[in-house]
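Trying the structure run again after the queue cleared.
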Amino acid sequence: MLLERIVDEQHAIAQVRASKSPKPGTKLKLADVFEVVVTGRAGASGEFFALETVDRASFWDLAESYGKLPLPPYIEHPAEGADEARYQTVYAREPGAVAAPTAGLHFDEAMLDRLRQQGINTAFLTLHVGAGTYQPVRVEKIADHRMHNERYDISQATTEAIAATRAAGGRVIAVGTTSLRSLESAGNVDGTVKSGPAETDIFITPGYRFKVVDRLITNFHLPKSTLLMLVSAFAGYDNMRAAYLHAVAERYRFFSYGDAMLLEKLNAV
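Done. Tokens:
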């Protein structure tokens, strides 16, 4: 079972892999320790299961005590203690994502300090990454693909930092597609950003005109993924094809613990 979202103390939605699809009312025993009951289906097409804890236990406590870090499937070893530290950004604060924003794994406190010393300001936001971000596109027409909702929260301080950067003639550089999707979801046509919590199902494909982000730091992504379409929209299909051909030829490391690239917005003025 992969927890997609903890809704509140006693309720969550999750992906469930079983020999038979569990019906509402079914009790599932997890970690050979505690039980949850299936209350129904959830998600735009019913791909998730709605769960409720038994005996009023807290999903947060149960996940912390018995859950395992859900490493990406291409990392083949079971999650170990070291992964708890390695597969996490140094600036993570709020629990709730199913995966780390991997572009942020390239930054440590020493690097962030050096950036500040060079006059590069930093600001932070939260997006609770959902499993849908990594789902391959299985439809023939891109327009038929539906993204799952993900929660994000942008502080007033961050929106003010973006406005100040623009006023000073600076550029907004997003660290990761997570940050970019949040900023573009909250962005206005004039490049300003709305603060506060919200949800997004934004699906960025070639032809999208970016409102907020000027540059993007991102890892190399899986084929047929929505994230590969996003970076193609940002930097241009031909540029991305050339970048990937170079990366393959030079044997770059791909995916979560792999190499990163700095992309310039194609329609930058």
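Residues 217 and 262 are 5 Å apart (CA to CA). Worth checking whether this holds up in the mutant runs.
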